Known about the structure:
Layout (H helix, E strand, L loop, with lengths): L5 H6 L27 E4 L2 E4 L4 E3 L30 E3 L6 H10 L3 H5 L4 E6 L5 H11 L6 E3 L5 E3 L5 E3 L9 E6 L11 H4 L2 E3 L5 E3 L25 E5 L2 E5 L4 H17 L22 H6 L2 E4 L16 H13 L1
Parallel strand pairs: 3-7, 5-9, 5-14, 6-9
Antiparallel strand pairs: 1-2, 4-8, 6-7, 10-11, 12-13
Amino acid sequence: MRPSPPRLVAALGLLAIAPLALAADDPKPGDPLERRGDEIMVCGQLFHTGTPVVLWTDPGGYDAYRVEPRFIPADKVRPDLAKVRFSQRRHNLSEADQARVKLHGWDLPTLQNVVDQFVIHYDVCGTSKRCFRVLHDDRGLSVHFMLDLDGTIYQTLDLKEAAWHATIANGRSIGIEIANMGAYPPGKTATRDRWYEKDDAGRVKIKLPGTPEDDLIRDPSVPLAPARNEPITGKLQGSTLEQYDLTQAQYDALTKLTAALCAVFPKINCDYPRDDSGQVRPDALPRAEFDAYQGVLGHWHVQTNKTDPGPAFQWEAVVGGARELMKK
């Protein structure tokens, strides 16, 4: 077979691979290639984040490509959920681009022209294991990343897929579900409060319904406690809500992931929607503003009926910290 001309390879979005000249100390065919353990996958390529990442292909990973349920018996699943839980991205793609991607697959430059938002959610499930069961097994939805209480990031799909996590943002965004029991009106926090308790010194700890092993917490040495000891109160979408903060391990991991995503996807501006005073906007963006927006945002910026990631979320710690990492 004659090799494809370079221009044709580029036009088709294919990866040109030069012939290899193996040295004596080079890996031999069949030698395993180990991951460092901090990589995310984009169009089949690995990119470092600096924080632990478990891929869907790893032992113990959460695979959103699977059609069958992970945690509930197959005969208990709604028949309409026996299907894929994601779709092909089409945002900002011409018909010719869509046809090319469908025939030849995604290349990174094409995907970089499509993805321009990073949507942050809380899961109201408490742990990533419970989140995957609700999202995948019970609801037939998907999200690219889940962030567990100990700071472990789980990637469930290649970022070339349009995960089903935020309605009108799906085709252009990356989504993450953060393990956190969410925000509630004052006086109506019973569901949340079952997940928290105070020790003898008055420090709030997260109280798992089961053991860390039951909930598949990978690093039991990480303190499972909110980054701030008291619930944080704020107003979102016009309603006053209370929420316990994320864990510090979650903030550290999310900051590094945000930096990596903004570096890999230049259209994701490393910033969040701000009001006239420079603070995070507490409401959904009007459709025209949303359509023009490129950057990091909360689920509440996408939909008027959502309040995640909640009033406790420390926007400047994550986004400002990510900007600092990107300068290094």
